[in-house]
Amino acid sequence: MPALRVPIVSFIRGVGDTVRKEFAASSSPAGKLFRSGGLQFVDVPLPQLPGNKQDAGYEEHQHHEDLLEPRWDLTPEQHKIVEQAEVVVMDSHTGGPVFLDPDTNLPSDKRHILDNVRWVQGTYAGVEMYLNLLPKADTEPKPEQLPQFKLTRGGGVMPKIMAQYVFGYVTLVERMLLEAKEFQNKREFARMELVNYRSASSVTVGILGLGDIGQGVGKMLRTAGYNVVGFKRHTSPKEAANLSFCADRITTDLDDVLSCSDYIVSVLPSTNATRYVLNEKNLQQCRERSPVFINIGRGDVISEKTLVDALDSGILSRAVLDVFEQEPLPRVSALWSHPSVHLTPHVSGKVFPENVGPVLLTNFNHYLRGEPLEFAVDWTKGY
C-alpha cells in the first residue's frame, strides 16, 4: 500500500520538523503509521498569490513583489504529491484563496491540483480567508453549494497565548502600572496613590464568545481571582456546568453582560451574527460602570465611530484593541492618537511551530478511525 503523503504548506518556519517529531514520538495509530513509513509529511513551497497582503507574517515569508499572475513553483515530485493528497496542512491565508478561488489564485496548469483533498488542517484559529470567499446568499445554501472538503481550525493553539495578552492589560490597568510610570517620570514616591487598587474579587470581566480562546481567557482570569461572566448565543444548563472552569456565570443575554462588567473582552469571530453586534443602543448598558473594552476577536464587532463616540462620552473608559474594523489600521484613523486607546497590530495570538503538531496528531487519529474531527468548521455558521 503506498504511503499517505501529506503536504505541509505554511509560512511558519520549522512547522514540518515539529510535526514529524510529534508523530515520531507518539504511540497512537497515527504515530505508528508514521514510523512505519505509511504516513509522510512533505514540506511544499508556498504559492505566490496576487495581492495577498492579509497577514504580516505571510508577507515576510513570501518575499515577493505584487504579482499580476499567481505562481506556484513545484518540482514534478511536489506537484504529484499535492495532486494526489487527501489531506493538506495549510495556513488559511493560502487555503482560502487557492481552494475557493483557484481561477484567480492558482496558475492555469494547477487549478485542479487540489481536487482530491478531503480534509484541510489549518494552522490558525481564524478562517475568514475561507468564509469571505463563500458565495453570498440571502438564504441558507444547499449542501452541494458549500465546500466539499472538511476544514479544521488550529484549535487549542491560541487560548493560552491570547489569554496572556488580556491578563496583561487587565493587570496593567488594575494595578495602575501606567500611572506608576508617570509618577516615576516625575520622581514621586506616590505610594498612597498607587496602593489604592481594587481586589480582583471585586472586578467582573465579561467575555463575549466562549469558544476555546474565550475559555482560555476566562480560565486564566478566574485563576487570578476575577469574576467572569461569559456570553454565548446559545447554551444549556449542562453546558454552563461544563464551562464552570472558565466562567462563574454564563448567559445568552448580551445586555446583562454589558451592564455588569468592569471589562468587556470580545473574542467573537466575524460572522453575519456578530458584525456590529455592539452598537450605540446596547452600549448604553455600560454607562454606569464605564468598562474597559478589550478586543482580540475581530474588529467588525463594533464600528470605529461607535467605539470613539463611546470613549469620548465616557460610556467606555478605555479600549485595548488588537483587531480593527479595517486592517491595516489607516493612518488617518482617530484611534492612533486617542488618549484612551491602547492598540497593537493584530499580534495578541501567534502560532509557534510546536503548536501545530498536537492538534494535527489528535485529528489524524480521528481521521484514521473515521471519527469526527476536532475544531471542524461549520460552513453555514461561519466558525
UniProtKB/TrEMBL annotation:
UniProt keyword Cell wall biogenesis/degradation present: no
Family matches, as Pfam families: 2-Hacid_dh_C
Keyword Coiled coil: yes
Residue ranges constituting the D-isomer specific 2-hydroxyacid dehydrogenase NAD-binding domain according to the UniProt record: 172-348
InterPro entries hit by this protein: D-isomer_DH_NAD-bd, NAD(P)-bd_dom_sf
CDD domains cross-referenced by the UniProt entry: 2-Hacid_dh_1
Protein name: Unnamed protein product
Organism: Phytophthora lilii
